[in-house]
Every structure is written in C-alpha cells, then in structure tokens.
Automatic annotation (TrEMBL):
Signal peptide: none annotated. Pfam families: STAS_2 (PF13466). Residues 111-123 have a biased composition (Low complexity). Residues 23-108 form the STAS domain. PROSITE patterns: STAS. InterPro entries: MlaB-like_STAS, STAS_dom, STAS_dom_sf. It comes from the Bacteria. Residues 111-135 are annotated as: Disordered. It comes from Streptomyces prasinopilosus. This is Anti-anti-sigma factor.
Length: 135
C-alpha cells in the first residue's frame, strides 16, 4: 500500500513518474501535528532515489494555522534547497484564503520546477499564458 509508514496525516499516493513523490495531507495542519508532518514529508523526500518533484495533495487538508503554514514554507524551502520541484495540488478555498491573506499564495502555488542537472543551462521559461494578454 503506502511506500512510507506515515502517520494518518500524510499518505503516500501513486505517481506516474519514477522521480516524483506524491503525498496527501489529510486533516488539520496545526501546531499539534505540524512537526510530525514536516518529518514525514522530509523522510519521503530523502527516502527515494533521485527525487526531482514533490507534489502535496491538499484536497483533504482541513484547517491550517500559523504553525501549519510554517510547515508548508519549510517544506518548500527544503525542496528548493535540494533542487526538488514543489507543487501544491488541489488547494481548497480555506487554504487559498490563508495563503492570500499571508501573501504566500503565489510563492507556494507557482509550480517550482526541479533544478536542472549540474552543468546544464536549464530549460527556458515555459509559460504560454504570458504572451498576448491583450490588456
């Protein structure tokens, strides 16, 4: 079943690509369980071979307090530092509201791509939505 023995707040999800870790965050993300969630996610990041992308599914995420937001920011920071892509999937209205109020919405929801391999110039920016906005 699960690739990692997680607490009920972090569930491993199947993935189509071998270098991606997909996890579901379930229930409230608050000061009571935030540290455990952080440790579980970091264990999953460092437990796989050549992990290039982390996808956190927030579909079943409940309330998120300031400690929970700090956990999401720490996970993002660690993934960035490791050159791992970071994605929040299925951000619901409650989480979106918190992220917008705190000014972290764009930071946490803009897909962060994995760093290119060493010695590579990296891919060009691929956002077709930025051309021809017709403002």
């Amino acid at each position: 079943m699960a690739a990692f023995p997680f607490a009920p707040h972090v569930l491993s999800l199947p993935t189509e690509t071998p270098h991606t870790v997909r996890l579901a965050l379930v229930g409230d993300l608050d000061h009571e369980i935030g540290d455990e969630v952080l440790h579980q996610v970091l264990r999953a990041l460092h437990g796989g071979e050549d992990v290039r992308d982390l996808r956190l599914d927030c579909r079943d995420l409940g309330a998120v307090d300031s400690a929970g937001l700090a956990v999401l920011l720490q996970i993002h920071r660690r993934a960035s530092g490791d050159g791992t892509g970071f994605h929040l999937d299925h951000v619901g209205p409650r989480l979106e509201r918190l992220l917008r109020i705190t000014g972290t919405y764009e930071y946490l929801t803009t897909p962060q791509q994995a760093a290119p391999p060493a010695g590579s110039a990296g891919p060009a920016e691929e956002d077709p939505g930025t051309l021809g906005s017709g403002a």
